[in-house]
Each structure stands twice: as C-alpha cells, then as structure tokens.
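Lab meeting, action items carried over

1. Structure of the four-component assembly. Owner: GW. Status: complete.
Input record:
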Amino acid sequence: MNSELEKAHDYFIETAGRLSKSMGLNEIAGQLYALLYLSPEPISLNEMVGKLKISKASASVNIRALEGWGAAKKIWVKGNRRDHYIADRDVWKIASNRLKVGLERRISEANGAVGQVEKMLKDSEKKFNDENKKLARTYMERIKTVRKMSERLEKLLKLLPTDLLE
Amino acid sequence: MNSELEKAHDYFIETAGRLSKSMGLNEIAGQLYALLYLSPEPISLNEMVGKLKISKASASVNIRALEGWGAAKKIWVKGNRRDHYIADRDVWKIASNRLKVGLERRISEANGAVGQVEKMLKDSEKKFNDENKKLARTYMERIKTVRKMSERLEKLLKLLPTDLLE
DNA sequence: ATATTTGTTCACTTTGTTCTGAACGAATTA
DNA sequence: TAATTCGTTCAGAACAAAGTGAACAAATAT
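Predicted assembly:
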C-alpha cells in the first residue's frame, strides 16, 4: 500500500472522528463512517477492526448506531458470509438530520419541564403571601418568555428540512 | 420561603442545567444562568454557592464563562464590596450565538484538515502506481464533495444572524 | 455431531472531564 | 500592622463516558 495515500486516508478518518466527537457523537462512529465513505468496496466488521485498530465490540456497537441513523447499511457480498457495510454518502442529509433530531429531543424535553414549572407556579399561586406573590409573578413572566422562545425554536426546526436542507 | 415557590424555582434551574449539559456546555453554567435569569436582584458569588450548593471554585469559573459569552455581567451594588452579577435575559441571542460560534469553530477546523488531505493527495499523485492512482481519484472526488458541503455550511452560518436571529 | 466462524452483550478497565478543598494574593477593615 | 474578606488557581478526588476482552448464541462448515 502506498504510504502517502494511506496517510491521507488515515488523516481524513482521524479528522472525521475528532469532528464527530466534538459534536457530541461518538469518535469511533465518525471514524467508521469516514472509512466507509471513502471505500469503493463494502467493508466487513473484521476489516473495520483491522483498519481502525479497535475492538470488535466497538465496531459492532458503532456500526449499528450508524445503521440506525441511516448513515450506513448492511449489504450482501457474494460468497462471503460476513456482514458488509457501505456508507450513505449524502453527508449533508445525515449530519443535518442528526443535528435536527438531537435539538428536537432536547428542546421538547426542556419544554415539558418548563411547562411543569409554569403549572406548579399557577397551581400554588393562591397560597403565596404578598412577598412571594410578587416574586412568583416575576418568575411566571420570565419563564413565559423562555417558553415562547423555545416554541419558536421548535417551529424553526420543523421548518428546517424544506428550507435549508433539501 | 414558600416551599412551593422554591420547588418551581429549583426545578427550573435543574432543567436549565440538564439542557446546558446535554448541549455540550457545563451543567453548572446552565444552572447559574437560570439562577440569575430568574432573580429580580443581582446575585453575589457567595449567594450562588449557597443557592446551588456548589463550591466557590465552580461558581467563580463558571460565572466568568458566562461573562465571556455575554450571558451575565458584573454589576456594582451600593455599599457592598462583593461582585454581583445579573443575567442578560435575551436567551435567544445568547443560545444561538453559542451554537453558531461552536459550529463555526468546528467546521473551520475540519475544513483546514480536509484541505490538507486534498493537498496531500495532489502532491503525491504522480508517485502513485496505477492501482493507487485509481483509488486516489476516488478519494479526491469524495473528499471534494465533503469540502463543498462544509463550505456551504460555513456560508449558511455566516448568513444565520440576519435571517433567523434578528 | 463437532468444530469453527461470526456478531452481540456485558462486566470491567481505561480515559477524560468536572468539581472541590486548600492555598494564595489582593483588597479592605479594624 | 494585623486580621478579615474576597475571588482565583491548582492538584487531586469523584464521577461519567467509552473501549476492551471474554463469554456467549447463532449460523455455517467439516
């Protein structure tokens, strides 16, 4: 194997891993994806283990994560009983979808909690003494602002695919 | 202190911490911001320590991170020599800016590396034998696609503030 | 039937991050 | 001037996340 070529290959993969990690995804998942992305041929679990110098366990777990995200898919290779994988090379689609899904989940969780806080404040409003009533008003008002914003964000996310990602 | 009120208050802060953490920021930073966000009064380091049950060290480090992001600012309180802080309550501005800056840094790093890989391939192109020449072509083509995409993303990020964040 | 190959799962270790307590210097008060 | 109050820094403890090896079950080959 030409070592210059291999160096470039490996550096690309390393970079993908770093990026993946810094984006809150798994480093090995990023490396695996880059490996598949570059390869003209489908790749087996064992080859992943060999090329990335990782354990079979990691390869197994992470390739299935990629599968789950629609970033890789299993493919049948004639006369070979090992699982082979290829990348869906539409990086943009995959990355933006990851981002979108991740944001949506977080926002919706936060929204749920914020809604609960609002409910708590409303429900016990009558029990507050004057001092606390004033404070509760401040809280309500400010929390409402937050909820408004996050609703706005949710809408924005729903909008994203058609406007920006096609 | 009315305990219902306090519960709502604390739950809001807890939620902010969780969200902050899940977004790759620091949990305490999120809690601190939420604390300041709700408070009608400026808050001192010691009060943060007391209300969030954290160490002075954490409070100090994280409040300055918030300051650096423009999410909190120091304020002078008459007759008190402690530092007091208030939140900039424009959550949208702060959050979107964080997101933007974070993405920009990562993308630009990745871009640098990808550019280098392209250079490596080009530079050593002549030395490849036929087999590798073909492989190198595949790499180049695919990596170029990635670069195009990330350039697109960079542009999109530059565009963001005016279009979406007004 | 037995042996081998293959991918998955899980308990454990390793690695990296975050938080804290203690020590410190600067500023303020007595 | 000495004592106290503050905020910062830093080494190390506590914690969380990720990767590994070994055991396993399923499929295939001998």
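2. GW to write a short summary for the group page. Key points so far: Chain A touches chain B through 48 residues (CB under 8 Å). Strands of chain A lie at 43-44, 72-75, 84-87.
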